[in-house]
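Working notes for the structural subgroup meeting. M.R. asked for a predicted model of this chain before we commit to crystallization trials. I am recording the input and output together here so anyone reviewing the notebook later can reproduce the run.

Input as submitted:
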Amino acid sequence: MSSESLVPLSQGAGYGVVVGIGLVFGIGMVLVNRFLERYLNEKSDHTEMFMVANRSVGTGLTASAVVSSWMWATAIIWTTAQGYLYGIAAPFWYAAGVSIQIALMTVLAIHAKVKVPNGHTVLEIVRLRYGTAAHIIYIFLCFATNLLSVTAMILGAAGVITSLTGMHIVASTFLLPLGVIVYTVAGGLKATFLTDYVHTLIVMVILAFLTIKVINNSAITGLSSFYDVLVEADKTRDIPGNYKGSILSFKSKSSIIFGLVHSFGDFALVLWIRVFGRRPGYMLGGIAYFAVPWAVGTTTGLAAIALERSPIFPTYPRLMTTEEINAGYVLPYTVMAIAGKGGAWALLLVVFMCVTSTTSAELIAVSSIFSFDIYRTYINPKAQDHQVIRVSHWTVIVFGVFASAFATALHYGGIDLNWMGYFLATIICPGMFPLAFTILWKKQSAPAATIAPLLGLASGIAVWLGTAYAYSGELSILSTEAQLPCLWGALTSTFSSAIYSIPDDFDWRVFLLLSEVKDESDEDTSTNSPVKDIKDLNSVTHPYPPQELKRMNRAATLAAIFSAIIGLVTWVVWPLPLYRDYIFGKSFFMGWTAVSEIWLFFCILVAVVYPVVDGRKVLARAFTLFYQSLSGKKDLQSTSPQGETSPSPAEVKEAAVSVQNRSGVLEKSD
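Returned structure, recorded in token form:
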């Protein structure tokens, strides 16, 4: 097959999607933002809306945003490549490596919202509890985490776009973030939630189409046929560490190592910036999302094995090279084989939507670091709302350009998606336990929180490089992306930081000193600083009423129980009985694949249908007001859904003070 046939779409298609659709989303978000501002009085030029969506995102929209936020390019690109390399177990371990993090994030989210009701970023909390030195260290760690995660996404997506369109990889690398910068600047966190929904709608429909197409095409005519083709392909493969070298065995050493490295990395990649804007939909979204890497990786990864020696495969008669596999080309080649140009178009849209959705979340996270934790803390402590939001906007733009440049430098240095995927955990995990302890454990000391991440990072890098050299006798791209060195590095950097911690004592009421950001239009600007100047903690009151605090504490207990159940099910009860000398039979394989596909459609219901049902009242109100505006009726913005006049800002402020005075003091507790 000629080289031209490996590129099914034109460069114009690539530029049309990356630039055209990106700008369409950007312009669309500007229009949506104007609509929300005019009819629902939600202004993204206020920090509380830009950063935390006024802490008012609904459950359905939250569930959709969780699915979209975790819809990384690696969720479909990398898991497909690992499924091709190690067989049927690898996609499951990717899914299991994500579900436990989402479940535990629910616990952290509830504790954060109870203990730090006015928090915007975890770095604010670090500074208030541990001081300036720890704050600066965690600024660096958070920035590195966001930069590396965005870079990994851009590298993977740019590689796939290049393989589908022939578009120059540098052009795709720099143009990918363009549209997301526009709509993130225009709408902030609420914008990312809304665009996440649109992204998820498009991505989930296309993924459902592609996974079904894998099972029903000219070479594979059903699940039974799929199994027969895999059995024949299995005769030509011998995977080290798998039972009898089979792609159809769950007893796979390499798959478990992949799942562990990926799992540790994702613990640190949880987007803490959205904790303060979310509701219980996080848990529901986590359960639904499990199907995405499982179903997509299982069908497309195994289909690549089944079809690689077929004339319909793009690389035929040769097999894929190591460079192509590590760059993430397994998925696009498989889609080309089963769906031709139509499939290539569909995958191009999916990859673009995935990377832009993830990038939007990271842009908001980085903008919060620079606006709150650098500008408002060290440069202009009395910054007003409009000043903070301006810094946030410029940060989004600068970081988007810088991330693209950094990804380009790594590409020309020989770094690919596979290297980044395995390497990431070693660098971003050292702060995981200290950050979690900041919210959950009152005994962690300031020296421990400050020193432990640095020691953990140094230990992890030393073990990673040392074992890479010990196993291969050299330090190279291939040796440092090998599974075992990356696993030892991730384990060391993660758990050594917990060992380095030493105990202390902390009063949770200190977190209540954090204040919201005010604008110059507010009557009282004397407290417009990150932390209130209150020396007597006994005078601090919690903004939530006592009944609400009890409800949230009960929710935290239930979330902890749920997380334990999820961990046991996905890492013990379900997979371990399958880790034995067994090769999937036809009936079991058909059931396994069918369940993953059914789960994928359940994910569509949660991420696409439920947000509309959950937000039907808000949607009805918005469209009613929009219709009334077209009819010439006035004074719509001050009308509530029941037709009552909304209170004035002074009345709202007076009511808030009254509620605060009635709420109790947060008691000392573990």
